[in-house]
Amino acid sequence: MLENASTNYDSIKIDGANKSAIEVCKQRIIAVSVIFFVVTVLISIKLFYVSSSGSVIKTEIINDQLPIVRGKILDRNDKILAVSLPSYSLHMNGTKVRKPIILLAKLSKIIPTIDKSKILKKINDQKKFIYIARQLTPKVAEEVHLLGEPSLDFDIESLRLYPLEKETGYLLGYMGFDDKPHAGVERSFDEKLKQGKDVKLTLDSRLQSIVYDKLKDGFIEFNAKAAVGIIMDVTNGEILAAVSIPDFNPNLRSQHKSGNSNNRVTMSNYEMGSIFKSFTIASGLNENLINLDSRFDASKPYEVKGKIVTDFHPKNRILSLKEVFVYSSNIGSAMIAMQLGMEKQNHYLIALGLNKTIDSGIKEINAPLFPEVVSEADIVSRSYGYHISVNPLQVIAALAATVNGGKYIEPFVVDDPIYKKRPSVQVFKPEVSNIMRYLYRSVVSDGGTASKINIKEYKIGGKTGTASPVENGQYNTEKNIVSFISFLPINDPKYAIFILLDNPNPHKKPQATAGWTAVPIARDIVREMAPVVGEPGLNFNMTKNINKEAILQ
Amino acid sequence: MISLSRSDNSLLARWWWTIDRWNLLQIFILASIGIIMIWAVSPSAVDRYSEINDSYHFLKKHIGFLSIGTLIMLFLSFLSVKGIRRIGLLGFLSSLVLLFCVMFFGENINGSTRWLDIGFNIQPSEFMKPFFVIITALLLSQKSRTIENFPKWINYGHLSLILLMVVLFLLFRQPDFGMAVLVILMWFGQHFLVGLSFRWVLALISALTTVMLLGYYFVDYVKTRIDSFLSSGNQGEYQLSLALKAYENGSILENLFGKGPGKGTIKKQIPDAHTDFIFPVIAEEFGAIICFFIIIIFTCIIVRGFWRVINFSNLFQLLSAGGLLMLFGIQVLINISVTLGLIPTTGMTLPFISYGGSSLISTFICMGMMLALTRKN
């Protein structure tokens, strides 16, 4: 009906109007074509722009705009001890999952550790937030991402890895779930690490591994409650290795709980026992109260104001100074301390940093117990390592001062000017070091308590200590804290090696003293570390520095 | 076909010598590209639907729709101008009926009621589009004439406005704003062809703005889309950022021919990879250069269509063929612009390439009628 309209009605009248309408229409069609063409060209330009790499603002699907990556912790040779990697946690919106079985099958192909039945149950419960996995590497996250599953989403996390695992656990500390540092260098140097700067330690990871291995072996063999092993450079106070066992693995979050308070390198107080005789003798030598010709009557117990001092290995005769040290005579030590007096004894112990909380770069530290000396009995106790409780780190630094030319250098683990530029304190005259080296060597070579470390390849000097721990206010003589300090090479010491075993309880060995436990551990460490550090053991010349005649003139 | 001589007077021969064979060829090229693309996208699209297990489900259905659509197109292209008028009227009335049915029996998918379940889902508004163009052309070609048995002050132009209002009412009820905007654009486009003055062009712009504002304030999903478009520029939406990434992956500077067929990754992430967002997927897998090729073919079809149309002196033919070409062109431009982040997401498919039965067949109807209307006399 409509199509007839144009022909039947007023065809002539509208013909002219229609003609001009047709012309207008044709012009307009051309206009539309032009508009269309122009818009198409504009869109094509945009398409070209978008598809030319680099000209478009990068739209990353997984947002890789990580906050500043936490700095690395490096050892003295720039070996990585702690490093942060970007990681992703994966979660799922259970209400958006369409094919749970297929999805979980695909997911478990990428992440085999997921608990499919547990997740499936949560999907069936229509949980809106289901954790699937945490700390995925970018590669795994990308694979999951490419599933294109709308119910899955990622959060960015930072994964902190410690390649040496248990070996450096306490020293480095760890990062908690909250991405906050807990313990160790992570905590004390958090500000620097947070800014993405690396922190370099004085630690030598090779020595750290050796100490860890040998200490752990000894810890198991001697059935100890705890063990500590430290290597220090006596010439500059740098800590090269520091291990505390029982250990924990900072890479495993389940073990973090034990990582807070058990670093016995610093968080412990032990009465060290006979090792302290080194301080007593060195102080006596420094004050010219004694020399290598001094003689001490150990034929009978020594009595001081009601306190009776006896020897553990009684010789029941007059002992030389060397014999006092080699046989670890309490009597001889007490006699020197009485000559020294309370004031001088205090002076030297304080100068050796044994009364203060040292700053080594590790914040977890126990202040020493440095009770006031009220009687002469206290002076005597202190002379052989009782009535004063210190941690292993401060004792190794104090012992270093007896052989390094007499300087006390506060020990440190972080290679940072604030530690390196600290002044050392001249506590003993350099000559004292020479005599002490001779005495330490004698303990090893002359059938003393450390003869197990008398090996032909390396010339080592040292001193053992065995003490009974205080339990419930009394000394428990059933238990022992055994320790051993050794120096390598003893003619010109560079390395101090300190081993401590808390309550060793050996199954086979006849005695739980230092000589049977701590000394063999130190020997095993020396055998492995000396080639690593390039210590020319065989070129050792005994007469060069330890010449009794030269010292005595 | 070669055996058909110009002197042959059979129906087929007349069709062959009068049809726009270049545009027919270009349509088949586009349809073939569509098959390859759906082939590549189908498996990852299937993964999104728990009830479908055949990886090539979408490909098979797409080929089915293409075959039906091609037959419909060829059938329509045989019609005369008179035949197109009749089929336009018939088609428009049937789709109006279907649209009313949608109002009452429609399938609600994702918050809007656009589909009718007649054994399979159809979207009547898609079918209405090309027929509405024919009806509008028909009425506008008689614009100033009064209608029998109606008051004198009502002419065919007014009737066309009333039909527009009815259609818009039905679309708003669904709601389908993208389609409503398209219909308004078409209606004014055809008015523009018939000599609409610039006052009215301004009115068109204000009307469109009003519709946008109304949609913005009264319909949540329109508000969401526009907000996300405005708030963070063209990078706001997740889909869009993926689309831009896909274009980048198919960079003409680095990956001339894309990542390779089936090797794209963005298609697994974009929800509408097989429908509205197929263009960036093409870019990623086959290279943005193929996208330019597709744009060129679309442009050739439209420009060539217009060029043939202006040789006719029948106003109805000019208005209807011009309108159908505009409908086709606007859909292409809107779809590509959306994927490039130039305009907010509208839910418009890429003709001949995107998956979607109703829209595909609608496109074939559109082009079938266009071919019929541009046949040489």
Write a structural description:
The complex is a heterodimer of chains A (about 550) and B (about 375). Chain A has about 550 residues and is of the alpha+beta class. Chain A has a domain of about 325 residues: Beta-lactamase (3-Layer(aba) Sandwich), CATH 3.40.710. Chain A contains 19 helices and 20 strands. Chain B has one domain. Chain B is built from 14 helices and three strands. The longest helix of chain B is centred in the first third of the chain and has 26 residues. The model of chain B has no long low-confidence stretch (mean pLDDT about 85). The chains are: A alpha+beta (about 550), B mainly alpha (about 375).
Task: Reconstruct the topology from this structure.
The complex is a heterodimer of chains A (553) and B (377).
Chain A: H1 5-8, H2 11-51, E1 73-74, E2 80-92, H3 100-110, H4 116-124, E3 130-136, H5 138-145, E4 152-161, H6 169-172, E5 174-175, E6 181-182, H7 184-188, H8 190-194, E7 199-200, H9 205-221, E8 226-233, E9 239-245, H10 277-286, E10 295-297, E11 302-304, E12 307-309, E13 318-320, H11 321-326, H12 330-351, H13 376-383, H14 392-400, E14 407-408, H15 417-420, E15 425-426, H16 430-445, E16 461-467, E17 470-471, E18 474-475, E19 481-488, E20 495-502, H17 518-533, H18 542-545, H19 548-552
Chain B: H1 11-18, H2 21-46, H3 57-77, H4 81-105, E1 107-109, E2 112-117, E3 121-122, H5 124-141, H6 156-173, H7 177-193, H8 198-218, H9 220-231, H10 238-249, H11 278-286, H12 288-309, H13 315-339, H14 357-373
Antiparallel strand pairs in B: 1-2, 2-3
Features:
heterodimer, A: 553 residues, alpha+beta, Beta-lactamase, 5-stranded mixed beta sheet, 5-stranded antiparallel beta sheet, 19 helices, 20 strands, disordered N terminus, disordered C terminus, B: 377 residues, mainly alpha, 3-stranded antiparallel beta sheet, globular
Number of H/I helices of chain A: 19
- In the CATH hierarchy, the third-tier topology of the domain at 207-454 and 468-552 in chain A is known as Beta-lactamase
Q: What is the CATH H-level superfamily of the domain at 207-454 and 468-552 in chain A? A: DD-peptidase/beta-lactamase superfamily
The figure for the number of domains of chain B is 1
Strand content of chain A: 15-25%
How large is the count of helical segments of chain B?
A: 14
Counting DSSP E segments of at least 2 residues, the number of strands of chain B comes to 3
